[in-house]
Amino acid sequence: MSVIELKNITRIYKTGSVSVDALKGIDLTIQEGEFVAIMGSSGSGKSTLMNIIGCLDRPTSGNYFLNGEDVATFTKDKLARLRNQTLGFVFQAFHLLPRTTALENVELPLLYREEELSWKEIHKRAREALDIVGLSDRVEHTPNELSGGQKQRVAVARALVTRPDVLLADEPTGNLDSRTSLDLIDMLQRLNREGLTILMVTHEPEIANFAERIITLRDGLIIKDRQSVQMQASEALKNWKDVDEIEYENSVSL
Amino acid sequence: MKWSAVPYSAIRAMRRNTMRTILTTLGIIIGVAAVITMVGLGQGASAEVEEQVNRLGQNVVLVFPGERSLGGVSIGGGSANTLTVEDARALQEEIPEVIAASPEVRSQRVVVYGNQNWHTRIYGQSADYLQIRQWPIESGEMFTDEDVERASLVAVVGQTIVEELFEGADPIGETIRVRGLPLTIIGVLERKGMSLMGSVQDDIVIVPYTTAFQRISGRSHAMVINIQVYDQQSMEIAQQKITDLLRERHRLAPDQENDFTVQTQEEVAQAATETSRVMTWLLASIAGISLFVGGIGIMNVMLVSVTERTREVGLRLAVGAREPDVLLQFLIESIILCLLGGIGGILLGIFATEIIASYAGWPALFSTEAMVIAVTVSAAVGLFFGFYPAWKASRLDPIVALRRE
Questions:
Q1: ipTM, two decimals
Q2: Does the CB of A83 have a partner CB in chain B at under 8 Å?
Q3: Are A88 and A95 in contact (CB under 8 A)?
Q4: A224, A214 Cβ separation under 8 angstroms
Q5: Is residue B227 part of a domain?
Q6: Which of A51, A217, B76, B359 is the most buried (most CB within 10 A)?
Q7: Do A57 and B399 lie within an 8 Å CB cutoff?
Q8: pLDDT digit string (tens) for A28-79?
Q9: Interface test with B, best of A97, A120, A151, A162 (most B CBs within 10 A)
Q10: In terms of domains, do B204 and B301 share one?
Q11: Do B30 and B145 fall within a single domain?
Q12: Contact A158 B317 (CB under 8 A)
């Protein structure tokens, strides 16, 4: 079953007399359980597409069906509920609340749930989500006590805590070093294997190769949409060598 | 949404910038404290005025010589020589509602006892004067009608005289001298405190009016006639009868104006009450303005806070907050800010009122009403001035907000 279905989506930004066609007609269907990477250089429209899929922005024309429902007919409140329950967001800049513990950051989406949960249930679910990303021991830490990779994992836990259908990740590895990036991708792949649909925007081809489907955008149009041989991050991690290890090996071979 | 989380996150947002929170609430603290202080002092002053009106005596009518308009230029007149001792006597004897009348003559004199001397006011009065003024004797006794008839050289003194000339010792039976005239002290008055006009009423020597006229002041006419009327209901008719009798005695033609003024104690008190009421309103308005300015300070800081927390707002919207959720969150924050200021203001206000009241010498009255109003007003200030920043926050575009650095 298709989770996301876009039909001839356009998005035109108007600033005064100047109008920019960010998206010029996107047709895209994403099935449940897919791991999709969206590639493209800056200005290709990938962020705009992500915002529309994430219900943060509305298309100028075209239809967007989420779980078979036409999003164009939704009220602002209904869209907020979709963002809260159906979609989970992970951002490049993490966007954790400062001076707020990991647990409280993860609890945030639950506070905005339509059906109110008890505090006990909220704490329980947030702990479970932190458990999934492997941060059970960092529950009471604030963002400035966490490393970049840990911050992004808190952000993933925050996206997962509402048990969404789709995880939207906008350049999730953009602020991380390559080793930490691999760890994160490995985690996303595990979540994907458990059934989570993942849509990830990235401009790094190495990262995109860990997806099973790669879509390339240019000037607001899809120019390539291919299934790829999915690389496994866990494999890459097994063969991972730190810079000092490589230097050591080099010095030995010399 | 989970509302119980909002106050907690609001307080955390404030703690993130403790100094700014304190400075922001300072405006509200000062505003509320000013309101509480002004209302407290104003009510204290009114109560004091009321108390003094009661102490002035009940059902008292004052007759002044000449035209004397209260609040007008000629206040404090009494230069005209139109009231005589006989007038006073006639009023008491011929009008049934008048139960006591005391012709008054005042002089400023130096009083000497031993090697001490003290500048004070000497009042010539009749034996009924203390009854008219409802002024009890602390020790000794008041002079009698006989003393008045004989112009006896006796005096009743106030507490200030006891303190200044006798250093607190019992003065009964001692003799004081006024320009060489010996006066024997036969009574001491209870303490009376400040008058409505702010003079110390205890700084007084009372002698029979005959003695005052003949031996001390050198005048022959009364400066005031103090009259006590039988009861409250008779006040109006008594005033009319007093006016009629005096016009008749002074042989005034119907087209001639009165050469005296009849006033009740209430009328005198009313002017004083009115003054204190106007002052209270004036001060409370100024206090209200400072509360208003404090509110603008809150708005200012909330606007800065919204700008600083743009990304937080964007994130909240992205994870499912609705516009009203964000609006209410910021509103509640500014209300909490103002309520904290309100509580601080009440504490500061009580403190300030106590201090000022102890200097001013009148009681500080705190009505819970004033405090409830102050806190309600400060919450309303938070609501009113917090609305624009909160509305601005809720209208942020999440995409733009998230991208803002």
A1: 0.90
A2: yes
A3: no
A4: yes
A5: yes
A6: A217
A7: yes
A8: 999 999 999 999 988 898 989 999 999 999 999 999 999 999 998 899 899 9
A9: A97
A10: no
A11: no
A12: no
